Amino acid sequence: xxxxxxIILFILTMVFACNSKEKEKFKExxxxxxxxxxxxxxxxxxxxxxxxxxxxxxxxxxxxxPQKDSVIKGAILLLHGWNLPADEWCEKTSLCEKxxxxxxxxxxxxxxxxxxxxxxxxxxxxxYKKFPxxxxxxxxxxxxxxxxxxxxxxxxxxxxxxxxxxxxxxxLLAYYKPEIFKAVASLSGDFDITKMTDxxxxxxxxxxxxxxxxxxxxxxxxxxxKNFKTPIYIAHGEADRVSPVEQSKAMYDSIKLHQxxxxxxVHFPKVAGHNYDYWEYETDNILEFFEExxxx
Length: 296
Known about the structure:
The chain is of the alpha/beta class. It has one domain (73-292): Alpha/Beta hydrolase fold, catalytic domain (Rossmann fold). 39% of the residues lie in helices and 16% in strands. It has helices at 2-34, 88-92, 95-101, 134-149, 165-176, 200-206, 213-218, 245-258, 276-281, 283-292, and strands spanning 47-53, 57-64, 74-79, 104-109, 158-163, 183-187, 232-235, 264-267. The chain has an 8-stranded mixed sheet, with helices on both faces. Helix 5 (165-176) links the parallel strand 5 and strand 6. Residues 4-36 have low confidence and may be disordered.
């Protein structure tokens, strides 16, 4: 009996010891997480990454670094407008030149006609099924860039900016990935797509709203602003004839209502339209907002 007693006592001692070690490990993880330092970005060579999405579309992504002797401040993911050339924002405005001069790495993917939906639906028009979903970007492409380029890592100064449909994509990425993106800038974008049910770009991906209202609500964060945690700069011209300025104004009001302490800036110039002349005008505002949200 004594032998059995000592065996049981030994087992219990080991169990408590293991539990104690696990608690210590958990505590260490918590302390490490609390005191996590800024993760530096190291210089690599400019490159073009190619990722295969589905059978028929290759996502080409340019990574451009500032000068070799610079200390890299952070990285900016730039999302183009629907069916606009990915490089055009750089070519037609000074944003990329100024960002590089301020020591940011630029990440410029070409998503072509992607509308940043979470998934492809049976009602999605056949020609649009080949373009990347938001889920693929988050679950496949971002981890590949993290692994191969050591970019888009938590703890780095990483920002996302988008124009037009890219503005929608940028805010959705900021909503789903606040651990990666420290701030977001949306220019001339759409937010609450349930207010745009006659818009071809949405029903061609999602089916008609009257048939799938819950799907439409799921595909935008307008119904969950209480969980939007990322500092945001929203800019939209009041003379925009492509995307209604009311989209950005309503979203500002909603985020402000639910997130009283979140850093939000807006700009709604009266004569600005939906074009590169206006987006160039916002260049310094975007970079200043990102600078204000730098981790040190």
